[in-house]
Design a protein that fits this description.
Blueprint lengths: L2 E6 L4 H12 L3 E7 L8 H4 L13 H7 L4 E4 L6 H10 L4 E3 L6 H14 L2 E4 L5 H14 L5 E7 L9 H13 L20 E3 L2 E7 L5 E9 L2 E8 L8 H11 L4 E4 L1 H6 L5
Parallel strand pairs: 1-2, 1-3, 3-4, 4-5, 5-11, 6-8
Antiparallel strand pairs: 6-9, 7-8, 9-10
This protein binds NADPH dihydro-nicotinamide-adenine-dinucleotide phosphate and the ligand O=C(O)C1=N[C@H](C(=O)O)C[C@H](O)C1.
The ligand O=C(O)C1=N[C@H](C(=O)O)C[C@H](O)C1 binds next to α7.
EC number: 1.17.1.8
Enzyme class: oxidoreductase
Keywords: Amino-acid biosynthesis, Diaminopimelate biosynthesis, Lysine biosynthesis, NAD, NADP, Oxidoreductase
């Protein structure tokens, strides 16, 4: 039997690519689509496909109550994602979280809800396979090099900071080894904000300018040498589809929260 998927944000940049990915996959079926402005319209038509005979729902609860669903996927907005995921879990549906804007405290709450319900959640700041390589390489490097900083580049209109990619990376690198500034920030002469923000132990500098989609750079410094690891997203949402759908296929067998697609792709980080 096909795995029945509901997509929150089905009319968005990423959501439309995912609707097409689910429709094209022989082992998946689209059971629900959520968006406010297109509520009532056909989910296939609004994604630029043939009609699917499935109406877009105006909210997550309505979609999940209307059709039996195995996995809820969220690509909505930083202001909506946490409530959507908690709603899915409360209705007994595991979740895959692509939307950015949540930090360690939000994920602790989501992990508790998932464990209470005996359900899985997979969240990843970036579901592209190559961005997951940036994450994994950076985590490995942080095990060996203490001094690092993260640069987070995104489009001027991005509503959240840092990006989901950079936030997850900073929190996970910070848990391995805190990035300790060589000169204490409190004693800096000049505007302290120019030294970026401590995000879960990792230091992040955010740049927001037209022409970027999203790029993340981790820079490691040692005496006499420097290592830079960088990922650049292009203008298509295609790279996020395979990783998101891999997470959807795997989340049904999990209990609790897994944060980071690299954990599904490459297994736990070697200690
Ligand atoms: N983890 C990853 O790999 C990736 C993460 N992202 C993240 O996913 C999120 C969505 O990105 P993107 O696809 O570009 O977004 P879009 O703005 O293109 O689409 C957002 C979708 O969510 C719906 N939506 C539901 N609730 C809200 C709300 N409260 N406010 C705004 N929209 C809402 C919109 O429809 P309507 O307004 O009609 O409700 C629309 O369908 C972002 O946080 C982005 O950073 C994006 C790509 C990859
Ligand atoms: O807002 C976007 O567009 C993206 N956001 C994600 C993030 O916040 O990390 C990543 C994706 O590359 C695009």
């Amino acid at each position: 039997m096909s795995l029945r998927i509901c997509i929150g944000g089905a009319t968005g940049w990423t959501g439309k690519a995912l609707v097409a990915g689910v429709v094209a996959a022989p082992d998946l079926a689209l059971a629900g689509a959520v968006a406010r402005k297109a509520a009532g319209a056909d989910a296939g038509t609004v994604a630029g496909l043939e009609p699917l005979g499935l109406a877009v729902a105006g909210d997550v609860a309505a979609a999940l109550k209307a059709e039996p669903t195995d996995v809820y996927i969220d690509y909505t907005h930083p202001s909506a994602v946490k409530a959507n995921v908690l709603t899915a879990l409360a209705l007994g549906v595991p979740a895959v979280v692509g939307t950015s804007g949540l930090g360690a405290e939000d994920y602790a709450e989501i992990a508790n809800a998932a464990e209470r319900q005996g359900l899985g959640v997979v969240a990843s700041g970036n579901f592209s396979i190559t961005a997951s390589l940036l994450t994994r390489f950076s985590l490995l490097a942080a095990q060996h090099v203490a001094d690092y900083e993260i640069i987070d580049y995104a489009k001027a209109s991005k509503p959240d900071v840092p990006s989901g990619t950079a936030r997850e990376l900073a929190e996970r690198m910070g848990a391995i080894q805190k990035s300790v500034p060589g000169h204490p920030i409190d004693e800096i002469i000049g505007p302290k904000e120019t030294r970026g923000a401590d995000v879960g132990g990792g230091r992040v500098h955010a740049v927001r300018l037209p022409s970027y989609v999203l790029a993340v750079e981790t820079i490691f410094g040692k005496e006499g040498e420097r290592l830079t690891i960088r990922h650049d997203a292009g203008t298509s949402a295609g790279p996020y589809v395979a990783g998101t759908l891999l997470a959807a296929r795997r989340v049904v067998a999990l209990k609790g929260l897994v944060r980071g697609l690299d954990n599904l792709l490459f297994g736990p980080l070697p200690q």
